[in-house]
Design a protein that fits this description.
Oligomer: heterodimer
Helix content of chain A: under 10%
Radius of gyration of chain B: 13 Å
Order of helices and strands of chain B: EEEEEEEEEE
Largest sheet of chain B: 7 strands, mixed
Number of strands of chain B: 10
Shape of chain A: globular
Largest interface: A-B, 25 and 29 residues
Distance between the termini of chain B: 36 Å
Structural class of chain B: mainly beta
């Protein structure tokens, strides 16, 4: 079964640090880009960061640049998010998700195209930043 | 940066009715980069539609997607009790890499 399981969430004071982990199973982890997506209480989804298969490319939403670092260990089938200088506005459920890319023929476009979406999600881990 | 605006914010309907959800982009989006997700309380999002109109594996055919350019639509032909949830559109871009709409809640009338 394809599965993602997050861990590492908890209560942390403003300015503190936390490291989230995501354990992948049931698929070839090293073949996929991976993302972190968060959801503040009662709010919508916000993409946080993603990382290429070999870790050579990483992208972040502006609000976390310089504070958060995404990384992965393909030997351990694991994704990480190191969060430093945490703020109250970082309080959220953090989801790990698989970025899926498929290249196939589109009848509407009458050509081959790339499709992008997130097809597998973990259940999330809760981060609360509060004094 | 492309902004996705979903409407309405809340849709109050009865089981068996048709639901039409809108997702409007601030700039033209490639259809193959547009997806829809369903999220129920306390659960992770679930992929429904990718490429604007292709159903994901295991998604019932009462769910359909359409649109192009800046206007996209998710339609639920006949609402089942399990369809009452929040729905998000999403697009893949350059910066930021992924953008979500703010969501539409489909609630029981």
């Amino acid at each position: 079964e394809v599965q993602l399981v997050e861990s590492g969430g908890g209560l942390v004071q403003p300015g503190g640090s936390l490291r989230l982990s995501c354990a992948a199973s049931g698929f070839t982890f090293s073949s996929y880009w991976m993302s972190w997506v968060r959801q503040a209480p009662g709010k919508g989804l916000e993409w946080v960061a993603n990382i290429k298969q070999d870790g050579s490319e990483k992208y972040y939403v502006d609000s976390v640049k310089g504070r958060f670092t995404i990384s992965r260990d393909n030997a351990k089938n694991s994704l990480y998010l190191q969060m430093n200088s945490l703020r109250a506005e970082d309080t959220a459920v953090y989801y790990c998700a698989r970025d899926f890319v498929r290249f196939e023929y589109s009848s509407s476009a009458a050509r081959f195209v790339y499709y992008y979406y997130m097809d597998v999600w973990g259940k999330g881990t809760t981060v609360t930043v509060s004094s | 940066e492309i902004v996705l605006t979903q409407s309405p914010g809340t849709l109050s309907l009865s089981p068996g009715e048709r639901a039409t959800l809108s997702c409007r982009a601030s700039q033209s989006v490639s259809s193959s980069y547009l997806a829809w997700y369903q999220q129920k309380p306390g659960q992770a999002p679930r992929l429904l539609i990718y490429g604007a109109s292709s159903r994901a594996t295991g998604i019932p055919d009462r769910f359909s997607g359409s649109g192009s350019g800046t206007d996209f639509t998710l339609t639920i032909s006949r609402l089942e009790p399990e369809d009452f949830a929040v729905y998000y559109c999403q697009q893949y871009g350059s910066s930021p890499r992924w953008t979500f709409g703010q969501g539409t809640k489909v609630e029981i009338k």
